[in-house]
């Protein structure tokens, strides 16, 4: 785990950065990693210029950024249910990057 500006950033393999997920229960975090990993695999397969997927979880919103070599896409979703918000923001990125 890497600390940046007093916010915990978790660097996962495959170009994934998660910020603000420190307070998530360990069981939920395993599911989050699987969801994010699955979308990242799909995005990196479709986009050979894939660089990084960044997710920032605030108290009321998840923000995501997909970085390709020459392009960047942003998406956000309000959090009522963490898994639904995560799926929503990742689908939005997937659609924007088509």
- SSE pattern, N- to C-terminal: EEEHEEEH
In percent, how helical is the residue content?
25-40%
Q: In terms of structural class, how would the helical and strand content be classed?
A: alpha+beta
Count of domains: 1
Largest sheet: 6 strands, mixed
Query: Average pLDDT across residues?
Result: 91
What does it look like?
By secondary structure, this protein is an alpha+beta fold. The chain has a single domain, classed as Double Stranded RNA Binding Domain (2-Layer Sandwich), CATH 3.30.160.100. It has 2 helices and 6 strands, in the order βββαβββα. Strands 1-2-3-4-5-6 form a 6-stranded mixed beta sheet, with helices on one face. β1 (2-4) and β2 form a beta hairpin. The longest helix has 21 residues, at 26-46. It is globular. It starts with a strand and ends with a helix. Residues 1-6 have low confidence and may be disordered.
Briefly say what this structure is.
The chain is of the alpha+beta class. The chain has one domain: Ribosome hibernation promotion factor-like (Double Stranded RNA Binding Domain, 2-Layer Sandwich), CATH 3.30.160.
